[in-house]
Design goal:
This protein is an alpha/beta fold. Helices cover 30% and strands 18% of the residues.
């Protein structure tokens, strides 16, 4: 697993007597008159705020013209915050270029796949590979670092903001030149690239790297490996930009840690954060709750994955919302208790700082309807009262700070290459959704009360009794070997449909599906099983498949059929299998079952693997349990997944915060107990 080589946490202005849980928000004082700043600080102190992110979108204020600089207002704000005991996570302010830069240098503006220019007027209107943008942005970073290198308020540097949120894919000439350089470094020669891309198909064979373009709008499906490599390149281009800012900050301010806010949430998939983690001193993440049937589980899933990207080390929840956002089709407020539940769920999965976007709700601009810690209604409001209460509660959880999230007995593999490749065009179906399949397995684990880690595919699997690989579409030889070694070492692997299909070049593993995993699984699939919209196939365990239903043929005597189809042309064929391999096993689930259909299959496989729930039976499915450990102390987080009260008296431990007996709807309780030994 790619992990930070070292971990440096927030540099607090003064050494706290006790560990300190970070609490605060993005702060945008430039949006408000000077007299509001004093009121802000008063309310921050009341709420228990001890850290704010500052200057994120301030480039136009700091450098109003090419040769004009204005740091006086920022100096005053930082001094004011410091005088009131509030640390500053100082952004480099490079997230959005000022009007003068875009006017003088329109060549910094991104270009879409169809050749359209993305003009100023919103944010992030810059090309990740633009030499002109980098020149001006890095000049600003240098000026910021030099000016504030000795200020005691600065607890961390915040590189840009949500890198790639709006500009991950740029198809400009700058991108084309950088893409060619990236490809030259990856393949070395044009012949190797031609082999990797399969360019003899459709007469695409290149003779020089200079002939290659990004996968711009084409007459039909662009070369699939070209598309996959462009996704890899685009993630790497932003990673390289992150490095350039970071290196300046490390050189000028070596004592101040550097981070940037990832976006491990929803369908944000353009940036390979498992690969980026090594570039920052500590991992930070933004997460926004999207209402829906699995919204609470998705929040937990993303927090879980973030904690494992951070290799179990403390991480920073840089942004989430107190209530409604402004960018969904319908922006509903959060239900009572959800503000606290959402925050503490992230803490459960390893966050040692909890912040929001933003401190004071804007009165103008595109996000004026986005909730904040201080809403339009002001301090006399339910949101602010909840904010104050949470600040007090987080202060009471100071002993949790620095503890490590405890490893779970099971894991779900998460692989960016498979996410990117499995959802490309010209596939058996365009209805497949990688993240949704992974989330369904996670929900099934939660429904069974079994803790499961969500881990990058490069993670060490040693110690996990059961590992699920949903749609592990892209399997290089090295990954295949690691999975085989995991199983031969006594591990229990479960692969889903459309797994093992291609190698790292998006070439098919020949010999029948599931390709790279066929021998390990002991099965053969001759044709894929996509289903039409509205079509379903029944299974003999009472569930049904939609979207996908492979007809699985066993080809080894030690392969057992777990579940069969009972309807239509699929009737009698195997839908799920399990092959015993020494003390381990390799199972295959060839159908899209949804979380409810997965649950009985997973329960069977978990039981065979000896993986069980640690919760009392009556709490399984209703309560999520997450554990953090510090020495001999275990912190037990009990999260109510439901909108009804739950009796938790059966869980051991001394209550630190939350309820002792009845866990309220959408509530969280934290208990301590001695670490259990096997």
């Amino acid at each position: 697993m790619t992990t930070p080589p070292t971990h440096r946490w927030l540099r607090w202005p003064s050494e706290p007597e006790r560990p300190r849980m970070g609490y605060g928000a993005d702060y945008n004082p430039e949006q408000w008159p000077r007299e509001v700043w004093d009121e802000d600080v008063r309310l921050m102190r009341e709420a228990g705020v001890n850290v704010v992110s500052l200057a994120i979108f301030s480039w136009a204020r700091l450098q109003p013209e090419r040769d004009q600089w204005n740091f006086a207002w920022l100096d005053e704000v930082i001094d004011l915050l410091h005088a009131n005991g509030i640390a500053v996570d100082l952004a480099t302010a490079t997230a959005s270029p000022p009007p003068w830069l875009a006017t003088e240098h329109p060549e910094i503006l991104p270009v879409t796949q169809d050749g359209s220019t993305l003009w100023p007027g919103a944010r992030q209107h810059w090309r990740p590979t633009s030499p002109v943008f980098r020149e001006h942005a890095l000049k600003l970073v240098t000026a910021m670092a030099e000016r504030y290198k000795d200020h005691p308020a600065i607890c961390a540097w915040h590189v840009s903001n949500e890198l790639g949120c709006h500009n991950i894919y740029d198809y400009s000439d700058d991108a084309a030149a950088a893409f060619r350089t990236w490809l030259t470094e990856r393949y070395g020669s044009i012949d190797v690239l031609n082999d990797a891309w399969g360019t003899d198909f459709w007469s695409q064979r290149y003779t020089r790297f200079e002939q290659i373009l990004p996968p711009r709008q084409a007459a039909s499906h662009p070369n699939p490996t070209q598309q996959l490599d462009f996704k890899r390149f685009s993630s790497d281009a932003l990673k390289q930009y992150l490095r350039e800012e970071r290196d300046i900050l490390h050189r000028i301010t070596p004592e101040i840690p550097v981070t940037t806010n990832f976006m491990v949430m929803g369908e944000t998939k353009g940036m390979d954060y498992a690969d980026w983690a090594a570039e920052v001193d500590f991992v930070s993440n933004d997460h926004y709750f999207v209402p829906g049937p699995q919204a609470v589980d998705e929040l937990s899933f993303s927090a879980n994955l973030t904690g494992n990207i951070a290799a179990g080390k403390p991480w920073f929840l840089m942004e989430h919302s107190t209530s409604a956002v402004n960018w969904q089709p319908i922006n509903t407020p959060k239900k009572p208790g959800a503000l606290r539940r959402d925050s503490l769920t992230h803490v459960a999965h390893g966050a040692d700082a909890v912040c929001y976007f933003q401190w004071r709700q804007s009165r103008a601009g595109a996000e004026k309807f986005h909730s904040a810690m201080v809403p339009h209604a002001g301090e006399d409001s339910p949101i602010f009262r909840d904010v104050v209460a949470l600040g007090q509660e987080l202060a009471g959880l100071s002993d949790v700070v620095g503890s490590r999230r405890s490893a779970a007995p099971a894991a779900i593999l998460f692989d960016w290459d498979s996410w990117w490749a499995s959802e490309q065009d010209s596939h058996p179906t365009d209805r497949l959704r990688y993240k949704q399949e992974a989330l369904d397995w996670y929900t099934a684990f939660l429904d069974l009360g079994i803790r499961a880690d969500v881990v990058p595919s490069a993670a060490d699997l040693t110690g996990y009794g059961l590992v699920v690989a949903p749609i592990l579409h892209t399997v290089p030889a090295e990954l295949r070997t690691r999975l085989e070694e995991y199983v031969s070492g006594g591990g229990n692997l479960v692969a889903s449909y459309f797994s093992g299909i291609t190698d790292e070049n998006d070439h098919i593993w020949l010999g029948g599906y599931p390709g790279a995993l066929a021998e390990l699984l002991g099965i053969r699939i001759e044709e894929f099983g996509p289903l039409l919209d509205g079509e379903s196939v029944s299974l003999d365990n009472g569930t049904s498949a939609t979207t996908w239903a492979d007809r699985v043929h066993t080809r080894a005597g030690d392969v057992a059929t777990l579940v069969r189809y009972t309807s239509g042309e699929h009737a009698g064929a195997a839908a799920g299998t399990r092959r015993a391999v020494g003390a381990g096993s390799a199972a295959y689930v060839g159908a899209r079952l949804g979380s409810e259909g997965i649950a009985p299959v997973l329960a069977d496989l978990a039981a065979r693997a000896g993986v069980t729930s640690e919760l009392p039976e009556e709490l399984r499915g209703e309560v999520e349990q997450v554990l953090r450990t510090d020495g001999g102390t275990e912190y037990v987080f009990l999260i109510n997944r439901t909108d009804a009260p739950v009796d938790i008296t059966g869980v051991e431990g001394e209550t630190v915060t939350g309820e002792d007996a009845k866990l309220a709807p959408r509530s969280v309780t934290v208990r301590t107990r001695a670490v259990r030994t096997a």
